[in-house]
Amino acid sequence: MDYNYPIRHEWSTAEMITVVAFYEAVEKAYESGILKEQLMDAYRGFKKVVPSMAEEKTLDKEFEEVSGYVSYRVVKAAKDAANGDMIRGARR
Question: 34 by DSSP, 3-state: which?
């Protein structure tokens, strides 16, 4: 993909890497599928950097605008899935 991930300049390099890893996991869910555990691990890391639900929604909206991928949908699917399930996103 050729777009910029939504990041904040006040984050440390490690925090930026963690957030990008989550958005890459969302991309993988849409493009080829990802195991529930892998997606949820990335999401838990993301939530350590972005604990605020309001900020999460803002970042997810920015990510959706540039990528077309909706992270909320794949996280919800993962939360509803059994361990070992493959998570796949569906475009609108």
Answer: strand
